Amino acid sequence: MDAEVVLQDEDMEGSWTLLSWLAAFVMVFGGALPYVPQYQEIQKSNNSEGFSTRVCLVLLIANILRIFFWIGKQFELTLLLQSVVMILTMFAMLHLCCTVQNTNRVSTKRHRLSDLDLNYFWKWSAFEDYLLFCFGFTVLCAVVTLLLLDSVVFVEMLGSLAVMFEAMLGLPQLLQNFHNRSTKGMRSSTHSPPALCVHRASWMWFC
């Protein structure tokens, strides 16, 4: 009888472990998966006008801030991995958009980060400029965090800023659709309720 109870307990423990791993997998990759259809849509149509790259800007800033928030106030490692996956996903989206835009470009004029032209902020022609901007932003955050890491107020402010930026996730795409007077080329899955729920659930986990 005791042996049966032990086996049942082990089976239950194994089931909970499996569910825990499954939940962690969904949390890590769930936020990035909705961008796969969008990536495929851009590849297929060879047109990125329907997708706002400023969505990438919002998510890159939010997740970089979240990583530095983790340094000051460690939370679930799953959420840290989620941020890393999301950052890599946004870089993949930006790389594809730059490739497609350069292929379809009629004008020979190229816009670079070094031009320091605010009218073309985050509309650069080269993918390297996006990497350079994110690298500079990360270094700035690293220096400030290193100096103010002992300040509880600063650490909490990092978390609040990360939440605030991610709350603005839908705004860039809304403005892009308004500018285009169309939603053509945009996959609704990237801003669907399930996709947004993964983001919100992740923030609720550590807030």
UniProtKB/TrEMBL annotation:
Its main location: membrane. The keyword Oxidoreductase does not apply. It comes from the Eukaryota. It is a multi-pass membrane protein. This is Solute carrier family 66 member 2 isoform X4. GO terms for biological process: phospholipid translocation; retrograde transport, endosome to Golgi. GO terms for cellular component: cytosol; endosome; membrane; trans-Golgi network. It is found in: Membrane. Keywords: Membrane, Transmembrane, Transmembrane helix. The keyword Transmembrane applies. The chain crosses the membrane at residues 18-39, 51-71, 77-100, 130-149, 155-175.
